[in-house]
Amino acid sequence: MQAIRPKKTYSRLFHSITLFAFIIALSGCRVTLVPSYNEELESQIVTTAKLTDKLYLSIIDAAADNKAYTVYADKYLEIEAEINSILLKNEARPKNADFIVIIKNLQEHFKQYKNDHKAKKTLSDAELLIYNEELKAFWKPLLVAERALKIAQ
Amino acid sequence: MSFDINEVVANMVDTIKTNVADNWPLVKETANDFLQDRKSRLELLASLRLQNQISDEFFLQRLQDEKDILTSELHSIAIITKAIAQKAANAAIDVLQNAVSSFVSTIKLV
């Protein structure tokens, strides 16, 4: 019984999109539901996600006495500034509501994890590993969404 | 010569169906991909907690974070479905506009 539920959900969603598109098409004017694809933004997302991954891998790889927040503060700030820049660019785009939620979630959690490192002075490898995996999970929906905008072009 | 609105609407529906069907796998694959990622993260979290490498408090906080990750993933899927709907709707509008343009050209020739 549980195995067929996702199929039913997908089928409903498929028919909803088809009906939605038909109703819009009947209005007879060009439709804009999402922002235009931006290659520069996609590149910035990929680069900053890589920087985030590299930061956490560097801390994990460092010797126990070299994992202090102060050693990595500049790298944290560089990534935070890039995330702020991605948010600003998206705030200037039309039809940006979904993107803003995704980026603010990423921004909030990056700051939270950074502040945890700052408060504790150092983090264990297990904590760093989890933070890296969670941040990857916050980056991925943003990259997937930006790439999906190519469909609408 | 008459303008057959039924045929035009049928062509519009076909165009929408084709467009949605062509891009539909991306929605399914993305949703499944997000689910697989979640499974891996939860396995990692649980194993680190069981090995006592992270505290109970840290573990519970990360479970809370999973709710925010899910929110981001759902918004990402919403963007994909909207992009598909936009492409399909605009393709259908093109069908309508082309049909009207062709009909107007035919009338002018007559």
Task: Give the SSE map.
The complex is a heterodimer of chains A (153) and B (110).
Chain A (H helix, E strand, L loop, with lengths): L4 H22 L12 H23 L7 H23 L5 H24 L4 H28 L1
Helix pairs in contact in A: 2-3, 2-5, 3-4, 4-5
Chain B lengths: L4 H46 L5 H54 L1
List keywords for this structure.
heterodimer, A: 153 residues, mainly alpha, 5 helices, elongated, B: mainly alpha, 2 helices, rod-shaped
Compact overview of the structure:
The complex is a heterodimer of chains A (153) and B (110). Chain A has 153 residues and is mostly helical.
Q: pLDDT average of chain A, as an integer? A: 91
In sequence order, what are the helices and strands of chain B, one letter per element? HH
Ends distance of chain A:
39 Å
The proportion of residues forming helix of chain B, as a percent range, comes to over 70%
Cα gyration radius of chain B (Å): 25 Å
Description:
- With 153 residues, chain A is mainly alpha-helical.
- In chain A, 34% of the residues are buried.
- Chain A has helices spanning 5-26, 39-61, 69-91, 97-120, 125-152.
- Chain A is elongated, with a radius of gyration of 20 Å.
- In chain A, helix 3 runs antiparallel to helix 4 (97-120) and helix 4 runs antiparallel to helix 5.
- With 110 residues, chain B is an all-alpha fold.
- Chain B has two helices and no strands.
- The interface between A and B is large, with 43 and 47 residues.
